[in-house]
Amino acid sequence: MKTGQELRAGHVISIDGQPWLIQKAEISRSGRNTAVVKTKLKNLLNGYLTETPYKADDKFEDIVLDRKDVTYSYYADPMYVFVDSDYEQYELTADELGDMGPYIEDGIDDVCEAVFFDGKVISITPPNSVTREVVYTEPSVRGDTSGKVMKPARLTNGTEIQVSAFVEIGDKIIIDTRTHEYKSRAKD
Amino acid sequence: MLRIIAPSFYWQQETPERMKQIEIQTWDIFCRVIDNYGDIGVCWRLARQLANEYPFQVRLWVDELTALTQIWPSARVCEHQQLENVDVRIWYHDFDPAIQPADVVIEAFACNLPDSYLAAMKQRATPPHWFNLEYLSAEDWVEGCHGLASPHPQLGLKKIFFFPGVTAKTGGLLKERDLLDKGEAFSQDSDAREQFLEKLGVETKSGELIISLFGYENEAVGSLIDAWSQSSTPVLCLVPASKILPSINSAMGQNLKVGDTFNKGALRLQVIPFISQTDYDILLWACDFNFIRGEDSFVRAQWAAKPFVWHIYPQDEDFHMVKLDAFLKHYLDGFDPITQDAIIRLWHHWNRNQDCLDAWNTCLTNLQNWQKHGQKWRQHLNSLGDLASNMVHFCQKTL
Fold it and tell me: Strands of B235-240's sheet, edge to edge?
């Protein structure tokens, strides 16, 4: 059990039987040496976000989630199938792909982290960066090589992303999956 | 009977069954008396207002009724009594599991409801509106928490954090519907002040500055006594018997009791009885300046709109000073810088047990400005609505 004042970002707690990730917890002193803990919570089953205050002495069951490395294997409409090192398969809907959604395509070998609650995968976290090929972008404007000017580019799976002006069709680029921003061109 | 349509609630989607008309008739207020009279003062005032200004049946559960008998003399220490249309009950540690929850439940100051009562709340076809009524604070973070739902970790019941406050994004302050009219009528009646003070055994003299002095233990009182005794204006200081009396006796080398008077230079100090909530309001109206303490009298002093100094409830690591300054930031907005500085010094020194003499004398020269400012501040507070009405409106808006 954890008390309200012990809650920290990254903890997962049970509220009314559902797993909630604490994204932020701020303690404020109330009257007579009591305290209020304002939390930002994310429901790990449905992605619902909320801000919720608790008393410092409220008690919570903390949840230790199982985690496994998995890689994307194939699409079986409407499910995306991932596989772990033991060839165990896990099916996820498009909504459950989270930050990995924009980067799913056939043939990738990115090692993702699957998070389990009650034996079921509830989320997939991609690696912090992935490498993808640009299949279409406008030609760069002559003379501008500063890297500060951005332009749209389309990846193999149709995802659009802003890239530096000097990126060309066929280039492989590195993308930060936490911010969904272009980082650099990948070296061959 | 108040008829309420329950709209969707932002914590989770309402089921069609819950999107039905519900009626609010009954309220339960739970109060634990930690110390002094602040907890019971706020809860009793809220209970009376809900029972007398709305068609509600109100039960007040109190674990220590002796405190209530101090602020409301007709109250008795007994298991069950009907008082001012409020059903007052003793809150025993071993709470009766057969008690059925009310339509609205107020958990005052995070006092933790009995487990059996919580279980009964969960069993209701329509869960009650459940409020955690928090302490008054003017700190910025309060606005970000006021009105937010807090689902019970195990039961899922939704509790609303409701904060009293002095800004539009909070729940406002407790104020009975007729309070300001009563205060105005008192100030218009030229005999009312003398008659009231006479009832307390106080005789006034022309030209006196009348000060009420209610506070916790405070060594700084000696410096105030010095200031008042050396004052060019005669000062009458009325001290309701309270925790500050030993500090006064210590500073003056006296052993004053209720009814005793002490004279020193321009100062005439008189100890009056501990008075009821109703009489305390009148005392605040009757005085030119009020020293008050805690939470309930702090709120009443603001409605009285006279210059006042707040002795805030002390907290660990001097954290109460943060709360004091947060209030001053709002309260002093619009004051000229010199008066602001003097008021801040006086409040700080009073709350830090430090010499108040210079700060008091500076404030005294700006008393008229302060009086006018107090009335503006009261207008501002009045524009926020009152806490009980805001709570009722909150029930009307949300489920």
Answer: B261-264, B267-272, B235-240, B209-213, B289-293, B308-311
